[in-house]
Design goal:
Layout (H helix, E strand, L loop, with lengths): L17 H20 L3 H5 L4 H6 L2 H15 L2 E12 L2 E10 L3 E8 L5 E6 L17 E10 L2 E10 L5 E7 L16 H11 L3 E5 L2 H4 L10 H16 L5 E11 L1 H12 L5 E5 L6 H16 L4 H15 L14 E2 L2 E2 H8 L3 H6 L4 E7 L7 H11 L5 E6 L26 H11 L3
Parallel strand pairs: 7-8, 7-9, 9-10, 10-13, 13-14
Antiparallel strand pairs: 1-2, 2-3, 3-4, 5-6, 6-8, 11-12
Length: 435
Amino acid sequence: MKKIFLFLAFTIFALNSFSQNIFSLFGKANTFFDLFAAGKFEEAHGYFSEEGQTKVTAENLKQFWANMEGRMGKVKSIDATGSKIQGEFYAITVSGEFQYDKQDFVLLFDKTEKLVGMHLLPKAVTYRAPGYADSTLYKEKSRYIQWPGHQLAAVITTPKDGNSFPIVVLVHGSGPNDMDETIGPNKPFKDIAAGLAVNGIASIRYVKRTVIYPHEFSKAYTVKEEVLDDALQAIALAKTVEGVDTKQIYVLGHSLGGMLAPRIATLAPDLKGIILAAAPARSLSDLIIEQNKYMVAKSKDTTAAMQQNLQKAITEIEKTKITKLGKMKPDSLLLGLPASYWVDLNSYNQVETAKKLKQRIFILQGGYDFQVTETDFNLWKEALGSNTNVSFKLYPDFNHLFSQQEEKGTVLQYQKPGNVEQRTIEDLANWIKEL
């Protein structure tokens, strides 16, 4: 059992000092399997922590590898291909190709870069396009968002017919995200881009900077570097797209992107409007506390030890509620994010910022969203409900990815294939076309 629950908000991925360790851990993961292939199981056993070595013997490793080769043949290639935070551990995905089949593994490392666990990944469930994604009605072009020394791959999706169409810039949630905002077999931004294009509306989606340049986030930074700068570059790119009505440019921000959409609108006052999809109305710190409480309640573990762990987590989270650095260094880590990040985010009030905007605003929320809940939607509605430039839509049975569900779940829900529901696509298109 983990000592402290720290379920970071918005997505299951989070940025922290892990970015400094990725290359080291990739190397260790590859060497670990090289030792397997060479039959050096005693050396491979040495990669485990002291506690791990008491649970797994070198003989266990030898038997495990013999079983793998018995079923799948000799290994042809095996390489570390992915990484993420998993609680207080670092999870490295290793993709293996054998003579007869392929198999992915996950190695769990602790903060001292010692192995604490290993397991096989089930066969991946792949993305499936939604029924409304009629590719005969739209076209896609690859471009780059560029600035000195950097470039981010982007895709512009436009209707095949017509001109003078609106365009929407899609801004991700927190953590490293690809242009489709992929999580498991789900690609919500890819769904939205296709759905909007079928309805005569263009879009731009791009790879988040934290994916391509993780080393730049191993020091002090804020949401300016993580989100804002690139969103503004994407807006500038949107103005150059052939056939676009430059007076009809919108930003759709999901999760953290929705939280920051009002801030983006102040920096780009010529935007026609912003769309806040599952956007927090509260602070990131408050959301993380709520998520931890939810996950503990969901576990149905009512022991004193669990409650003590929860309280420890809350104590750690409370430390992030800073609005000034004081004597703290900007790159000091709090919950894996630099103090500069927390000061910047805590000094920003998204609700008050949105109140002052003249642009159109559309706020969407799923009732089964456990990451950003209906509480936030109600706070938005309470603050902006009387503003004539603001519209609201609650989908009681949708989750954080705007796919239909039978209940409010956990992150495991994101490992099942789903799509942004057509109702949401239609509501977005109709709202954009109202004026």
